[in-house]
Amino acid sequence: FDASRWATELASHWATQGGDASYALLTRAFVLANATTSRIKIVDTLVNLLRILIQGDPSSVLPAVWLATNSISPPYDEIELGLGGSSISKALKKIYGLDNAGLKTLYNKHGDAGDVAFEAKKRQSFTLVKPKPLKIKGVYQSLTKIATSKGTGSQETKQRIVEKLLQDARGAEESRYIVRTLVQNLRIGAVKTTMLIALARAVLYSRPEGASFEVRPPHELARLKKDELTELYTNAEEIVKASYARHPDYNDLVPCLLEIGPTDELLIRCGLSMHIPLRPMLGSITRDLSDMLTKLQGRAFSCEYKYDGQRAQVHCDEQGKVSIFSRHLETMTEKYPDLVSLVPEIRGEGVSSFILEGEVVAVDRENGDLQPFQTLTNRAKKNVEIGEIKVNVCLFAFDLMYLNGEALLERPFRERRELLRSLFVEIPRHFTWVKSIDAQSSDSEAVLEFFKSATDVKCEGIMVKVLDNEIKNDTQLTKDEIEQPPEAASAKSSAKTKEKGTRRKALLSTYEPDKRLESWLKVKKDYSTSSETLDLIPVAGWHGQGRKAKWWSPILLAVRNPETGSLEAVTKCMSGFTDKFYQSNKDRYAEGSTNVISRPSYVEYHGSPDVWFEPQEVWEMAFADITLSPTYPAAIGLVSEERGLSLRFPRFLKVREDKSIDEATTSDYLALLWRKQMERAVDGKEANQDP
Ligand code: ATP
């Protein structure tokens, strides 16, 4: 792989096209990214692509970023392509002259719609009129037209655009990626972080004309020592990632970055904003209470009930306009009109604008009892009328990130919590604070009692949050304090500067958007012998035996590998399902329906299930422990070269309605849990050997 040769190749390619950058250029990058599983090579490919665009056609950078991240707008914009599989099939038949049987044969052979388009285009007979080359901007505009066309005749309009795209695709690879884009399964491993890193690095090498920042000349950059280059990269990446975590919209980030470069000002111009959801801070896993107490030795912390509901970020501006966002940044304002109507009452004196966060939980209004998560899922997502609400909810607030025009992210948690609890007004059973106690490591009995009281009221366990900032220098850190959080441990980067930053942050009680640090810990109650659960994707099934003959049982589940885009089978499950669930599963994946597909090339599994499911759901699963497996390919290469990982005693818990398959457990995370389990086994052995 020679990135610089590729850059030259692309540059000359683009030069011959002139004007707007061609879609062929983007396709070339996709092909290269798809050909490797190396994150470094994928980043290099994207950096080269972006550099060429920045210099030659800066206006194509933003659409290229959207296309490479397989989206057209941020999640809270609620714009969706909404194309069914049948629409793609119809277009493939019409444009490439296939009949039903021909199309079916290709699908059976390849599984992936993009691969089918590739083959069909290759076989297409010679076309007299050579279409004008597709442009990056043009393809992006076509997608937004598909997504925004509404009302009568919109289906026909969408179909026409899809057909035109396929007709104009010049080579078989362009067809493949147009179709993969349309079915929203690009499979080039360009996840969010990869793109943010590529953007940060690209502007260290190139700037558009008229930009207000400078880049160092290439010969100077080439002379930098490895450490210096790493530091340069890391600083730029941290700024770009921090900006995106506070303001996750490429439409704002990309133009601003191209204008001012990766400078601190980016965080001011493109930082925390009203009615734009920030990416939430995340909790790190712990084995149990004693693991948590060891991790937080010497620190004051707050233990809070971990409610089983839906996370909500509530924004309210000075004019009283309210927006509510989910954990995954989708807009939920229409789902919770009852919460919107509470805002004027909870906003205490002196509060003009704010962003607060809490867990929405279904409650019984009569006695205030918490209801299970399943009850909450019965609420419609849209057009909920206040008078017709059947599922009552209470918002249990736990953090305040913005107040009266000022971001509070850098303030210690104790201070943010104090502001929240003193300035807002509690309305019992509608809006209140998460139940909590303050403690330290020596209070193990009180913590255990609190944990028990949480599980008694059907909470999932507790969240434990460091209350104060305490900055120590590296020599004062205990072993546990310097332990890296999972996020840093899984990242392959060994940048020293990053490690230091992570260590320091692990001790702070600031609100860190999009980070999973040791200052927020979750302790879950045991579902089985493992306290962790996994979010897996059902991908296939077998005909059941005996009583279960009319259903699919067992069901094959997979984790996702974000590097390759594949789904890796991890276990078969036949436990935890009710008969009602089995039936609804059979209805959803009925033979002959579009949810049942031929063997997909992107699912890794050597066995032969009776039926393959179109991946579309995420199921939360309990299990006893993780085992090395010769049969299942999940996380292969991460813990062993020959063997993958599987689960012992997998048990279905619930459908994660709030998660899309892109948010299912990754193979990296599974490997991390396996390593933790191994450490635990070693610890246990050592403990047992003590006299
Ligand atoms: P994650 O959000 O950590 O990626 P997840 O979606 O599976 O994983 P959990 O591991 O169950 O969620 O734990 C974190 C979630 O717990 C939060 O996103 C939030 O919705 C919920 N939660 C409930 N009570 C609290 C609380 N007191 N503080 C913070 N989060 C809470």
From TrEMBL:
EC class: ligase
Catalyzed reactions: ATP + (deoxyribonucleotide)n-3'-hydroxyl + 5'-phospho-(deoxyribonucleotide)m = (deoxyribonucleotide)n+m + AMP + diphosphate
This enzyme's EC code(s): 6.5.1.1
Presence of the UniProt keyword ATP-binding in the record: yes
GO cellular component, as recorded: nucleus
Entry keywords, A to Z: ATP-binding, DNA damage, DNA recombination, DNA repair, DNA replication, Ligase, Nucleotide-binding
Any one GO molecular function term: ATP binding
Coiled coil segments of this chain: none
Limits of the ATP-dependent DNA ligase family profile domain: 386-561
Protein name from the UniProt record: DNA ligase
GO biological process: DNA biosynthetic process; DNA recombination; DNA repair; lagging strand elongation
Stated family: Belongs to the ATP-dependent DNA ligase family.
